[in-house]
Specification:
Blueprint lengths: L6 H11 L8 H13 L1 H20 L7 H10 L9 H29 L6 H12 L8 H4 L1
Length: 145
């Protein structure tokens, strides 16, 4: 259900949000368009007044800060600490050592997993299954052929 809008509410919204109804709150836009259709002359006059203000505000530029203000702000800003402190160095070294240890562990595990066995192909599978599970071994395919 759409609320009806009167001239007072339309004027307040135009003053607050400008002449473009599309920039007004979504909950108010349908009622504003309905009021514009009901009273086009009054609504258009209010939008024209708002448009004059919009154009005046669009021409304004913010003032540049003075050099004194700029210098005061920069002098009040905290300064970064120069150089390395022992704590920062140790923290960095600890992270580096941890990463190096993780890389070394990955290489050792990767080499261990990828180490070739003496058997190849189906023999390797049958040996692996036989070792892993004593009661089940794949038949030797080469002796059957």
């Amino acid at each position: 259900m759409m609320n009806r809008m009167d001239a007072t509410r339309f004027e307040a919204l135009a003053d607050a949000h400008g002449a473009a109804i599309g920039r007004w709150p979504l909950a108010e836009q349908d009622a504003a368009f309905a009021y514009l259709a009901e009273a086009p002359e009054a609504a258009q006059a209010l939008l024209d007044q708002a448009r004059v203000l919009d154009e005046a505000l669009d021409t304004l530029r913010p003032p540049s800060p003075s050099l004194a203000l700029r210098d005061a702000v920069l002098s009040a800003a905290p300064r970064p600490k120069a150089g390395w402190s022992l704590g920062r160095w140790l923290a960095g070294a600890g992270v580096g050592a941890a990463l190096a240890a993780a890389c070394a562990a990955g290489v050792v595990i990767g080499v261990d997993i990828a180490a070739p066995s003496s058997a190849t192909g189906l023999d390797a599978v049958s040996q692996t299954v036989a070792v892993e599970d004593d009661w089940f071994a794949l038949p030797d395919m080469e002796s059957q052929s």
